[in-house]
Amino acid sequence: MDFLDSSFFQSTRPSQRLPTPAEVRALSEVKNSRPPPVIIEHLNLLVKFGPRVNVAEAQCLWLIRTILGDEVPVPEVYGWRVDGLEVFIYMQLVRGVTLKSRWEHLNALEKTSVCGQLCRMITSLRQIKQEPPDQFIGSVNCQAPQDIIFQNMPVDGPFSGVKPFNDWFSSLPQRFLADYQKFQDPMRLLLPDDGAITFTHADLHEENILISQHGPPQILAIIDWGQSGWYPDYWEYCKAAYTCMYSGEWRMQWIPMFLAPRLDEHEAFSEYVMAIGAL
Predict the structure, then answer these.
(1) Which of 223, 221, 215, 169 has its CA nearest to residue 191?
(2) Do 136 and 145 contact (CB within 8 A), yes or no?
(3) 90-143: per-residue pLDDT in tens?
(4) Where is the Aminoglycoside phosphotransferase domain (predicted)?
(5) Given this structure, which CATH class describes domain 95-279?
(6) For every residue of the chain, which 3-state class applies, written as one string?
(7) Angle at the Cα of 66 (from 82 to 41), degrees rounded to 5?
(8) Where exactly does CATH 3.30.200.20 map onto the chain?
(9) Checking phi first, is residue 111 left (phi over 0); if not, alpha (psi -120 to 50) or beta?
(10) Distance, CA of 117 to CA of 254 (rounded, Å)
């Protein structure tokens, strides 16, 4: 897939083309199942690739830019390729630094500013809605949820609603038990079945937020949408809390400035994640 209306193909360079998968592999310095992205400076290009990369991430980037424009800044996607078992996503090289690398050098007002920007972006992201008759939980292309905590679980989904997803998620710790050994799980009551389904990044931590390198911190892009999709409305907070120190400042003080805490749901979430070994 090539997005011919993207800035890459609208370049003044005649006959500019995306490098082939073979050319990208040749530029990669790491040969394993999780190679780092290849950066091609003169093309302002970053290529994310490997067997763990999925086309849904590219579709997600296109969806966000198409619907929300600059309200939620993400890298512009130029196209993708599927070559054997590997997916290659060609996207804009965003020239910023991670929030994590600059965070300790920011003062309280600057940190508050960053959280305010994130709050506005998440509010905008929630404007993306499913059609009521076609609601589901899963990836943007109607496949199973791509969240990394499920990577060693039997593939299932998409799910027809919040309750089927909650039932499945809560059943995972008991999946190897015989029927007579299974018990009524008290944590299941902490997961509401009547909540909304929201479009969710599902990996919102400091390394996936790129900001300006100098001056007042401005968010340039939210990256790594490979786990994103449609999830229960509690999922964004639970995953953001999952990616940081349990009692750390980021979780206790700053995350609540851009995500409403879901403490009951997080208690059940944490219990299930530990029980299935997704640490």
Answers:
(1) 169
(2) no
(3) 999 999 999 999 999 999 999 999 999 999 999 999 999 998 888 999 999 999
(4) 69-260
(5) alpha beta
(6) CECCCCCCCCCCCCCCCCCCHHHHHHHCCCCCCCCCCEEEHHHCEEEEEECCCCHHHHHHHHHHHHHHCCCCCCCCEEEEEEECCEEEEEEECCCCEEHHHHHCCCCHHHHHHHHHHHHHHHHHHCCCCCCHHHCCEECCCCCCCCCHHHCCCCCCCCECCHHHHHHHHHHHHHCCCCHHHCCCCHHHHHCCCCCCEEEECCCCCHHHEEECCCCCCCEEEECCCCCCEEEECCHHHHHHHHCCCCCCHHHHHHHHHCCCCCHHHHHHHHHHHHHCCCC
(7) 55
(8) 21-92
(9) alpha
(10) 12
Whole-angstrom distance, CA of residue 189 vs CA of residue 88: 41
> What pLDDT shows up at residue 54?
95
CA 253 to chain centre: 22
* Nearest in space to 153 (alpha carbons), one of 170, 178, 135: 170
Judge whether 167 and 182 are in contact, CB under 8 Å. no
Give per-residue pLDDT as tens, 28-64: 988 787 899 999 999 999 999 999 999 999 999 999 9
Tens digits of residue pLDDT in 179-201: 889 898 999 999 999 999 999 99
Cis ω before 158 (30° cut-off from 0): yes
Q: What fold characterizes domain 21-92?
A: Phosphorylase Kinase; domain 1 (3.30.200)
Q: Which two tokens stand for residue 19?
A: 């490098």
Tokens of 121: 């972006």
Distance between CA 235 and CA 182 in Å, rounded? 26
Residue 195 and residue 163: Cα distance in Å, rounded?
9
- Give the residue range(s) of CATH 3.90.1200.10 domains in the chain: 95-279
Q: What is the largest CA-CA distance in the chain?
A: 69
